[in-house]
Design brief:
Strand order of the largest sheet: 1-2-3-4-5-7-6
Distance between the termini: 29 Å
Helix content: 10-25%
Radius of gyration: 14 Å
Number of domains: 1
CATH topology: Aminopeptidase
Mean pLDDT: 94
Number of helices: 3
Shape: globular
CATH class: Alpha Beta
Number of strands: 7
Low-confidence stretches: none
Strand content: 25-35%
Largest sheet: 7 strands, mixed
Structural class: alpha+beta
CATH superfamily: Gcn5-related N-acetyltransferase (GNAT)
């Protein structure tokens, strides 16, 4: 199988929102205060694209199987937030989460960021495991967060 990253396009919006919502529903996180209800989720391709942010889809044999993004985290200096990392069920367990994180961390560095921040939830134990194995350290909840229902917070020096 051939996996490749590329920037999201409007043609990807429907597939990636389906992957995101399906994942959140599976872990009972289709609740207010999560990405499930983010303004613009149905049109992610229009929400990213500046020099200090980006959203990328992961393709396998020409089919979108996941996505990951980043954007400036305005509440911490020189910090980008790792955002909306999701994989379709058939490709989970193949180490792709690690590849996605590494890929977007390189994009963060290219954009000049020195740290990566992320928010997650106790329900997402597999994701938490990947974050910890990728070098992220848990921190106390920052005063400002992007999603009010998230209850675990991590940071990593890039």
């Amino acid at each position: 199988m051939d996996y490749a990253f590329r920037e999201i396009t409007p043609d990807d919006d429907e597939k990636i929102v389906s992957i995101i919502r399906k994942n959140l529903e599976a872990y009972s996180l289709n609740i207010p205060g999560t990405a499930y209800f983010d303004e613009g989720l149905d049109h992610l391709s229009t929400c990213y694209g500046k020099d200090d942010e980006g959203y990328y889809v992961l393709e396998c044999d020409g089919q979108v199987v996941g996505g990951i993004g980043f954007a400036k985290f305005p509440f911490m200096d020189d910090t980008a937030e790792l955002q909306k990392i999701y994989l379709d069920d058939p490709v989970k367990g193949k180490g792709l989460g690690y590849r996605m994180i590494k890929f977007v961390e390189n994009k963060m560095k290219e954009a000049g960021f020195k740290r990566s921040y992320l928010e997650t939830h106790d329900n997402l134990q597999a994701a938490i495991h990947i974050y910890e194995k990728s070098g992220y350290t848990e921190i106390d909840k920052p005063a400002e967060t992007g999603h009010s229902s998230m209850n675990r917070f991590f940071i990593k020096d890039l």
